[in-house]
Fold this protein.
Amino acid sequence: MRKFREAIIEKTILLNGFACILFVVLIFVFLAKDGLTLFRTIAIQDFLFGQIWSPLAEPPQFGILPLFLGSLFVTVGATVISVPLGMACAIFIGEIAPRWMREVLKAGVELLAAIPSIVIGFIGMTMLGPVVKSLFHLPTGLTAVTGSIALAFMAIPTMVSIMEDAITSVPRTYKEGSLALGATHWQTIYRVIIPAASSGIVAAIMLGIGRVIGETMAVMMLTGNASVMPKTILAPVRTMTATIAAEMGETVRGSEHYFALFAIGLVLFGITFLINFLADMARHRKKK
Amino acid sequence: MKLKPQTKQKIAFALLGLAAVVVIIPVAVILIILIKRGLPAISWQFLTEMPRMGMRAGGIFPAIMGTLCLVAGAIGVALPLGVLTAIYLVEYAKKNWWTRMIEIAVVNLAGVPSVVYGLFGLGLFVIFFHFGSSIVAGALTLAIMELPVIITSSKEALMSVPRSFREASLALGVSKWETIRCVVLPNALPGILTGSILGVSRTAGETAPILFTVAAFYLPRLPQSIFDQCMALPYHLYVLSTQVPNVKPALQYGTALVLVGMVFSLNLVAIIVRAHIRSKKQW
């Protein structure tokens, strides 16, 4: 009897473990079901490489290249800002800061992570937008750069916490060996500790980028929402995520436009899946 | 001129410290702005009244209640599911490719963009299950979204329970499940709770997943059942700041402050719980 009960419980728990796989599959299936329907009427190359996104025109055009470039501009901008800042912050927290300062900084980074994206978007609109506008003498402050700055600060907490883990898990003996040879603390950091932690750092950067690509609300409020081919990073752009969030409310269920938004979702899912998979590989390689 | 290594170190450390300060400044700036401009708007009426005049006056009570409903629903579903999955991964799973698949699935669930969760919720819960735009649909979408956070933190909590505890219990003839239930879980519980609270606080602030699954633009009454639409704080802030013209800034900042206040107090609880456990832990 007791054995029987144990077996039942074990099977239930086993089923639970599979639930996660089921959810990933379900997400894929439900995106693909509606997303792939688009390609019955629109050629896939017109969707991926079309330069005009104008779903309300007659005939409607569903080229996601401007949206993809919008996402790319914002992501590259945010990466350029967040990687050096995040790395410096992680090194400072992990290696240099005295104990009390480390606790304060860690709490600060955790709070930064806790601020909802909608609030970052709102404050960015009222504070950051006008600054960008007057700094670069632009007609509007809502541009790719504005989005990049805000997103950088949303990616930094993810990067810092994983990088700091990687830095502190470098064996103590490496550091001691280097110091004993007469290297300064700083030489030890950039010649020994950073190379030893490199795969964790790479994983952290990739997860941060994944977070930036998927970010929706702040980017929608800050980048100016212009679905045209972006020429500079000082122009308004629109990302793939923002397009879905902004247009889904206005579409008719089962229309081409509706399917096109699901197709964008599918593209996003594919990109983030790839990034996360590679990041996970990088992290696991470290453990061997 | 060649710098001495010691001088180089001083310059490098100063720059690193500067970077750390740059990262922390926005947190302080955002908090100060929110408190300075939002606090005057907050009153008992603001927190407990319905919005009036197309949201340009009145309170945010239905949005607060909506967010509480969604958070409670999401955690109610995600907590048991997440903890059991973590138990499977830590206690039962063998090192084979199935386990690796589950781990990869968890990692990828964590990386799916929030707006894609929204699309998924729309496709599965709203349309396929015919829940309509409702609290159930929204809460389930949010539950799947916070699942990876709960699994990851529960796993860590379970793994931090020493092996010897399990061995002692098993050696006394206690079965595996009972060892988990009576020995492992009670010791891991505080850690599990901390992680879950952090997961919940993230859900409370999410907007994109509820856009198409539950959020009502303007609904000045409380939801009647779980199949009803509701307002939610983050979406309300979005509407106030981009969709409705001529809203008093105080109203926007007030809403933002209430939202951030809610999220931060959840975080604070988690941090205090964690600190408390760390100080009490004896192994």
Remarks:
- Chain B touches chain A through 85 residues (CB under 8 Å).
- The beta strands of chain B are 51-52, 57-58.
- Chain B has a mean pLDDT of 86.
- Residues 96 and 185 of chain B are 25 Å apart (CA to CA).
